[in-house]
Every structure is written in structure tokens, then in C-alpha cells.
Amino acid sequence: MPHHTPAVSRRAVIGTIGAATAAVAVAPLSAAAAEAPAGRASQSGRPSAGQRVADIPRTRASSAAGEAATAVRTSFPIEYVGVSWTGPKRGASIRLHRPEGAAPADWQPLAAGCAGGPDGHEADPATAATALIAAGGALGFDLRLPDGATDVRSAAIDTVGGPSRQVTLPATTPMMFGRIEYLSRAAWGADETKRFKNGVENTPTAYYPLQTLTVHHTDGVNADPDPAATVRAIYEYHAITLDWGDIGYHFLIDEAGRIYEGRYSGTDGIPAHDSTGKVVTAFHTAGFNSGNLGIALLGTLVDQQPTDAARASLTALLAGLTLWHGLDPEAHVTFVNPVNGVTKPVDMISGHRDWLATDCPGATMYASLPALRADVAALDNLLH
């Protein structure tokens, strides 16, 4: 299929998306979110002109594999448990251990999603199981996995209570992408060292023309009190536990409508793209990643719609991206992966389940995708 991928300047990119979002009420960032401490470690400990120093808790994690991964105790409160295995997906459960003296919580089902991962290294989606579960400060957990489960890995993750590290941020946070306010990787606390293994970038950036856009949900908690901490937990789980080298999505959106920059795409200041308008390859739809941009809504959208603020931000972001790239948001296309040649007939704006065997982006959200496409198209038409 033909692709319109203009070699445009950063100013043209931002101006186009800014025009699109001007017609949509995107929820502004709260003062607290704008001051969220995060960023890259300061070399001198002192901010330069146009910067400020902030503190952020260092992510703590304890990983295990095999039998050891099914019975874990930690010296720190666990905010999230990440689990992966190969084998049957149904029948898994988890039991959290509370502070000393409290009885363990009841066993609860462990819902396994569909694995993502770098193109060319994808596992069989029918047997690759992954899950990230909110643990609420537990001090340990036990797992029961289905018979035949292999390659078991788990990680206890804390992104809120670790020792602080000083970081530097731009004096003005959030960043502006056109008229969209978004939290850059620095602003939500991405530790860029996690992209490297043995001093080498674990998954180097690669860029391809944008063909399609895919909507996800993270299958996490709703009414999340600290979504930036959740984004850091997803980053730890994807980059380190699953060994992808970075977070799997290009953008994430929380219930207040805040947009978070995902996959690292360089230093040109354009999230998810290089300076010519090509999209960086992420890891959200295994086997179909390159040229496919993934946006994840934080929370679980099986029985509820996203909040009005989250949906407004999603609509604005999709409209800006399709308008800039010259894509029809209501088109049905044939995706061709430029890395492995795999093809897939799919809607221009799809859900994760359109690509792989998964419930993502949740039954309720998936049912609303036709209306979302229509809203994006209406906004695009308004601005032409």
C-alpha cells in the first residue's frame, strides 16, 4: 500500500498536531503532575539555566526464574508483580503476602495477556503469557501456574518507596507537542540506563513509515492514585523483566487525560518519531511492530469505558498523527511488516486483539473503536 511519509521539519510536525488538538478539549495537567519529579540524573547535582533539580524514588526490583519465581519474599513493599511463562494461560493464580503478622490474602485469578516483544523474537501468542499485577505494598507472593508452564519468570517491583536520586528537569514541565501537553520520558521518571545491557543498547532504535495505529489498555488498576509510578513499573517490567530493552508502547494515557511519552525515539524532541517523520519501532504487537504505533490507556477497560478525559486525549492524539501522516482513520488496509514481510488486513485504527489472541484493549473499549474512528475522522475533516 502507498504511504505518505513526508520529510518534514520539527516545526511542521508540531504545528500540524497542534492544529488538530486545538479543536479537542484535552485535559490539562494538574499542578501536581507538572511537578512530578523525574528525569535524567544530573551530573553536577546543580541545575543549569532553564533546568531544575527534583527527586524521584529509585526503582527497586527483585527477579527470579523457575521454581524460585513462584514463592518470593522481599525486604521492600511490592507495588507490582510481573510474571511471564510459556504454556497454558488459563488456571494461573497469585496470593499476596501482607506485612508480618497478617494472614496471606486469598488466592486470586491471574489474568494472562498476550505477549509483545521485538519483531523477529516473538513467541507463539497462544502460549506466551504475561501479567503485571498491582500488589499494594505486599511483602511477598506465591504463584500457582497451569500444568505444563515453563520458562517461568517473576519480578517484584517498587517504584514509589526506593531511595531518592537527584535528577534534572526542564524548568517547564510538561512538554508541548503542538498544543498537546505530554510528560516526556524524563518527566515520568524513565531511567535511561535500563535501555542498556552490558553497556550496549539492548534494542537499538529503528524507524519506518507509519502504516497503522493500535489501541491498547494496560489491564491494570482503575482509579490509579499514582499513574506515573505505574508507567515506571511497566517500563521496568518490559525493559528488564521481559528483556525488551524499553517500554513497549509509543504513548500511554492515564484517566486524567495525561499523555506519557513511551518508547525512546532519540533526542530531537519529537516523541515516537525521528526528525523525518518515521515512527520508531516499539514492542506492543509481536510480529507486527515496525510501522505500527501503539497507544495504551492505563487501567482495565473490560467492563467500563475510558474516562472522558482519557478518550479526549486519545482522540486528539490519533487525529494529530493521522492528519500529519496523511492516513485515513476509517480505512481498512493491509499492513506489511517491513522487517519480516508479514502481512495483516486490519483497520487503520485497530485494537490489540485485531492482531493477536488477546482481550486487549478490553471488551468495552474494543466495542467503541468504530465510534472512535469516526470521531478522529470528523476532527481530521474539520481541519482539512
Indicate the topology.
Elements: H1 10-21, H2 31-34, E1 40-41, E2 51-57, E3 60-65, E4 71-86, E5 93-97, E6 108-109, E7 113-114, E8 128-144, E9 150-158, E10 164-170, E11 175-177, E12 180-183, H3 185-188, E13 196-197, E14 200-201, E15 207-208, E16 212-217, H4 227-241, E17 251-253, E18 259-261, E19 279-280, E20 292-297, H5 308-325, E21 332-336, E22 343-347, E23 349-351, H6 363-367, H7 369-383
Parallel strand pairs: 12-18, 16-20, 16-23, 17-20
Antiparallel strand pairs: 1-10, 2-10, 3-9, 4-8, 4-9, 5-6, 5-8, 7-8, 11-12, 13-14, 15-19, 17-18, 21-22
Helix pairs in contact: 1-5, 5-7
Verbal overview:
This protein is α+β, with helices and mostly antiparallel strands and 384 residues long. It has 2 domains: 248 residues, Lysozyme-like (3-Layer(aba) Sandwich); 99 residues, Jelly Rolls (Sandwich), CATH 2.60.120. Strands 3, 4, 5, 6, 7, 8 and 9 form a 7-stranded antiparallel sheet that branches. Strands 11-12-18-17-20-16-23 form a 7-stranded mixed sheet. Strand 11 and strand 12 form a beta hairpin. The longest helix is centred in the C-terminal third of the chain and has 18 residues. The N terminus is likely disordered.
Question: Which key features would you list for this structure?
Answer:
disordered N terminus, 23 strands, Lysozyme-like, 2 domains, alpha+beta, Jelly Rolls, 384 residues, single chain, 7-stranded antiparallel sheet, 7-stranded mixed sheet
